[in-house]
Amino acid sequence: MKRTTGIVLVLFLGFAGYSVKLAGQERVQEKVEVRWWVVPLFALDSKNKPCLDLQPQDLELRVQGRKIADFTLHKSDVMTDEQSRAALPPEQQRKNVIFLLFDTALTGPKHIEKSKKIAARVVAESPASSYFVVLKIDPFNGLETLVGATSDKTVVQQCIRTGIVATTQSKPFTGWDIYYELAAISDSGETRRGGGRLDAEDIEIIAKQLAGIQRPKTQIFFDSFRTLQRLMAGIQDNRVLYFFSEGVSNITAHYMFEGQSTLLQYVEETAGYLNQCGGVLFIVNTSGVEKVDSVNSSGENALRQMAAMSGGKYLEGQEKKIAETISNSQRAYYEIAFPAPLEKNDSSIVVEIKPRRSSLQIISLKSAYRKKRIEEMNAMEQGLFVMECLRGNPLLKETYDILAASTERGEPTPEGEKIKMHLPFDPRGKKMILYQVGFSREDEPLSMSIHPMVSSSPHLLLDLKKKKVERIIYWRQILLIIDKNLVLINPMKIEAL
Question: Which of 320, 344, 366, 438 could form a disulfide with 447 if both were Cys (CB 3.0 to 4.6 A apart)?
Answer without folding.
Answer: 438
